[in-house]
Design goal:
Chain lengths: ~270, ~290, ~450
């Protein structure tokens, strides 16, 4: 009885895993197929022979390295600045006392339900006035602060014992020093988590870069991929290769940092 | 804690984020609201004297716009069917991975989480082929059981379920992680004492896990609901809102009106309608959860 | 991606509402002359960088024409940027709003009225009057006309585009026909025979994608519908001429001569090769694709033909499509940009460009080249290009066809409504879209 139960549970986990992973497998496999091989019945799971030509095409026809660099600069820029800005605010909301703190925080929290798309056009016109359209700043500056990020950091920072901060204050440390030397190191798990999500969110964002980057040399990877689809709608295998290349960098970052994110979320979301 | 913090320090810590949020979020929201009271369109863009203040006419027109109701219906379908399903799948996989029987927990967690980190543009390309009526893996798999072939994205009554299936696959890993975190916060003694009392697994789940997870569940359902109300990218890439507008979501409709046809006034009024709907939805969520567990 | 298919086929056609007349030479043209002479002497040694945007494959390939141009004009540098068709409209409008439009760009010729309304593109009459390269009579009349609004010219045709009938010769012969259909009735009869031949298989006679507005508009135009009425202030889709054409096409779905869903044919080339359909109305880009993608064994089995006609005046009308080159009204480098337009309009450049991407030359003379004479697939296009009609020249037109026609065509094809209901609703929706236009016109009166 006990044993069957165990087997059932393990089987279930494996089945879900296969279901989750299959699309990726097929994407990778199809990207190595010869042109046309992905569109036959019954579907082939594996290429008859490994064909690198689609990847070659991508690197010759698409200025892939350029888009890769754009995506990296933008994603890293947003991540870096937003971590600083959000962590300062999150910490302040968690540990500082000031009048109307609660109402200000609740106001911020409740405005999370305003769909971001509402602001797209006015922000676009504003950036135009500032002359930032078609620059990295058009994405980095508006992305510098996020209510969700502030919320996540605050939730985590609440769990830091007050006594620790008080002791530092008694030793005469300035507020900024406390933030830098005590709070930031203690918040590392949540910072990595938030950083990871910010990075991925920015990397994967499609609509905003499409709108604010009017010059093709400024395109990000997903926009370049959509561009590719536009011209090669019938080339399943080529599009799969493009998809693989768009996903890989994010996966690398994710795998490198994945040991942190559990801790981060563990602390962040649950405490009220 | 001591009394109020000094104002300079407060400005230093809160200033940057509040300035960015005000300039790039709150002011634009207000500006967008004023835009929604005008008929700003392509003519106004070329010549501002062609801008008319129309009061709430956009909103009135919206309520008489069958496409808006279609979009609303589709979005609700997605939220009310996809949302709970998504939360249930996340909870299920979280409990599964929390079970002592499962080996290689980290690996499973990683695999389940992979879809979350992938670019939606890429995901959509793949799923379009999975759903392909003639060459798709899904129909091939079903044909082994003599089912089909089904036209997943081409049949108006199947298109939205197909989008929901893809969205669950893409998103369940994120909430799963949050649930695992919540599960690990439940004191083990509770389960141990329940075992001594002779409770079976189901009873433990019902009387300990569910109540203890209530705050997490509330958080997850609110976040999921808000996210799902803003359904956009999936239908944008997969179906463009078709077939027969069966996957036209509110945000997609808003985008089409705004950025494709440049009917800015109308498009912002759609955005504010969505805002009101999400607001009501959130209040209901909080009310429901409070009644249950307080 | 359906949308891409739709966008790629951006269709550009116009009704001639203005007689071609010699454009009045204004005093300003004299000033331009003076300025030209002056600026030439002024800027001989200054290098000017021109920004040029082009869409899709054209954008990819046009850079190959630049070296020769820069050799001829060493003081001009061209910077090309390629835009995907899927987002081209959004990108151009946002670029206009953010004042980042390039000096010179490609514009699908149905978008010209919109950019004229935005006051974004410059009138070209004076440039043309002083040009030895560009003149109206070198172009197909229907196509040239798409660039003319109230007798002012806003764009120069770069490449042209029209829809013809692609068909499987072998299948048609197997049901007993040697020639492609010349009339609507013939098309229908042939389709019935093809359907009956493939009984029990999932094969159809004709592909009429419900997510494309093109066939519905073409058949409407062929039937003499003007699509809009009363100075283009009201829609006329429920009018008899359009309704009859619409019903004719719907009959193909009802009689199972055409599939009602488009998902089945993600890859039209494969579907065409498999005989999934025999007839398909599409554009010249598919000639290249079919040559590339159909198996060698099938290369002699397909052909193109001009469109059938509702009456005996074969061929029937098709759309006057294509892309034009336009100048940004606020460009500081109009004179240099015009040089680039002229260069792209030269016979040799047009031919070279055709060889690179198979975009059909806008200049009639180029069609006399052996490249075309030796290509049987191109004959249909040449014939068809002499018989094109335009769609209404108003900014709202794109929105009406894209957002509304597909919607109702799909609804009727899948039997959710009857055509009378659908077309009445279509008129209502279109009239709503046209409301602002009516207001502006009444304000101006």
């Amino acid at each position: 009885m006990y044993r069957t139960k165990k087997y059932l549970i393990v089987c279930l986990a494996i089945i879900i895993g296969v279901f989750t992973f299959l699309p990726f497998l097929w994407m990778i496999s199809a990207s190595f197929m010869q042109t046309g091989e992905a569109n036959i019945y019954p579907p082939k799971l594996l290429p008859s022979k490994i064909d690198f030509s689609h990847y070659k095409t991508l690197f010759t026809n698409l200025d892939l390295s350029r888009y890769l660099i754009n995506s990296l600069i933008i994603s890293l820029g947003v991540t870096f600045f937003s971590l600083i800005v959000n962590s300062m605010a999150g910490y302040a909301f968690a540990k500082f006392k000031f009048s109307r703190k609660k109402s200000l925080f609740n106001f911020l929290l409740s405005s999370m339900i305003i769909p971001a798309q509402v602001t797209m056009l006015p922000v676009f016109l504003m950036l135009k006035k500032m002359g930032l359209i078609n620059t990295y700043f058009a994405i980095i500056i508006p992305g510098m602060a996020s209510i969700f990020g502030i919320f996540l950091i605050r939730q985590y920072a609440l769990s830091i014992p007050d006594s620790l901060i008080e002791a530092a204050r008694i030793d005469g440390a300035s507020e900024f020093l406390i933030y830098r030397k005590i709070i930031l190191p203690l918040c590392k798990p949540i910072l990595v988590t938030l950083g990871l999500f910010t990075f991925m969110g920015t990397w994967n964002d499609f609509l905003w870069p499409l709108i604010v980057m009017t010059d093709s040399s400024m395109y990000t990877m997903p926009v370049a991929l959509a561009n590719l689809m536009g011209e090669h709608v019938q080339d399943t295998e080529l599009m799969m290769a493009g998809s693989v290349l768009t996903i890989i960098p994010v996966l690398i970052v994710f795998l490198a940092l994945q040991k942190y994110y559990m801790h981060g979320i563990l602390m962040g979301s649950v405490k009220e | 804690m001591r009394s109020s913090v000094n104002i300079k320090i407060l400005i230093l810590f809160l200033g940057p984020s509040l300035i960015v949020l005000t300039v790039f979020f709150f002011l634009p929201v207000i500006a967008a609201f004023f835009l929604s009271l005008t008929d700003f369109d392509i003519y106004s863009l070329g010549n501002i004297s062609y801008l008319r203040f129309v009061g709430f006419e956009n909103y009135v027109q919206l309520l008489n716009d069958p496409l808006f109701w279609t979009a609303l219906k589709n979005t609700f379908y997605f939220v009310l069917v996809g949302g709970p399903l998504s939360v249930v799948v996340s909870l299920g996989t979280a409990v599964l991975l929390n079970s002592k029987f499962v080996p290689f927990k980290k690996l499973f967690r990683l695999i389940y989480f992979l879809p979350v980190v992938t670019t939606l543009v890429a995901v959509s390309i793949v799923w379009k082929y999975i759903y392909h009526p003639r060459f798709g893996l899904l129909n091939y798999f079903l044909s082994l059981f003599n089912i089909g072939p089904l036209d997943w994205l081409g049949n108006p009554s199947l298109a939205m379920p197909s989008i929901i299936l893809m969205a669950i696959w893409k998103n369940f890993g994120y909430n799963m992680i949050i649930f695992i975190a919540g599960l690990q916060n439940i004191p083990l003694e509770l389960y141990e004492s329940a075992s001594i009392e002779g409770a079976n697994a189901w009873q433990k789940f019902k009387y300990i896990t569910i109540p203890m997870l209530a705050p997490t569940t509330l958080f997850v359902s609110v976040i999921t609901m808000i996210g799902y109300f803003q359904l956009f990218a999936e239908p944008y890439v997969m179906t463009q809102g078709g077939p027969l507008n069966s996957t036209l979501s509110i945000v997609l409709y808003m985008y089409q009106e705004g950025f494709r046809w440049w009917n800015i006034g109308y498009s912002t009024s759609i955005a504010f309608m969505l805002f009101v709907i999400i607001l009501i939805g959130t209040i209901i969520q909080f009310k429901l959860q409070k009644e249950k567990y307080v | 991606m359906k949308s891409i298919l739709i966008y790629q086929n951006s269709y550009h056609a116009r009704i001639t509402t203005f007689p071609f007349g010699k454009v009045k030479v204004r005093a300003s043209s004299f000033l331009i002359c003076i300025f030209l002479l002056w600026s030439c002497s002024q800027t001989e040694n200054k290098i000017v960088t021109l920004n040029f945007w082009a869409m899709g494959v054209e954008g990819e390939v046009v850079s190959k024409l630049i070296p020769d141009f820069e050799k001829e004009f060493p003081n001009i540098k061209i910077k090309v940027q390629q835009i995907p068709w899927t987002a081209a409209h959004e990108k151009l409008i946002t670029a206009f709003a953010s004042e980042t439009l390039p000096d010179v760009f490609q514009l699908g010729n149905t978008w010209i009225p919109e950019f004229k309304a935005l006051n974004a593109i410059a009138p070209l009459n004076n440039f043309i009057n002083h040009s030895s390269v560009v003149s109206a009579n070198k172009y197909f009349e229907g196509i040239w006309d798409t660039n003319v609004i109230d007798s002012i010219i806003y764009g120069i045709p770069w490449y042209v585009d029209t829809r013809v009938l692609f068909y499987r010769k072998d299948i048609l012969e197997s049901v007993g026909y040697k020639d492609p259909p010349k009339t609507w009735n013939e098309l229908f009869e042939m389709s019935v025979k093809i359907r009956d031949k493939f009984k029990g298989q999932t094969k159809y006679a004709m592909l009429i994608p419900t997510n494309e507005w093109v066939p519905f508009i073409i058949f409407g135009i062929q039937n003499g519908s003007s699509l809009l009425k009363d100075n283009d202030e009201y829609a006329d889709f429920s009018g008899k001429k359009f309704k009859d054409a619409f019903d004719f096409l719907i009959k193909f779905y009802r009689e199972r001569l055409a599939p009602t869903d488009m998902q089945q044919v993600l890859n039209i080339y494969q579907a065409f090769a498999e005989g999934f359909f025999t007839f398909y109305i599409t554009g010249p880009w598919n000639v290249t694709e079919m040559k590339k993608r159909l198996p060698i064994s099938l290369q002699d089995s397909w052909m193109t033909a001009p469109l059938p006609s509702p009456d005996s005046n074969y061929p029937g009308y098709s759309l006057a499509g294509g892309s034009s080159l336009v100048l940004n009204k606020n460009s500081k480098n109009k004179i240099y940009a015009w040089k680039w337009i002229e260069y792209l309009s030269k016979n040799e450049t047009q031919l070279q460009f055709y060889k690179l991407v198979s975009s059909l030359p806008a200049v009639k003379k180029v069609w006399e080249d052996s490249t075309f004479a030796n290509d049987p697939y191109m004959r249909a296009f040449y014939i068809q290009l002499h018989k094109t009609k335009a769609t209404p020249k108003i900014p709202e037109w794109e929105q009406i066809v894209f957002s509304k026609i597909q919607q109702y065509a799909e609804a009727v094809a899948t039997n959710k409504m009857n055509s009378r209901q659908a077309l009445n609703l279509l008129d209502e929706d279109a009239n709503k879209i046209l409301e602002k236009r009516r207001w502006i016109l009444s304000k101006e009166r």
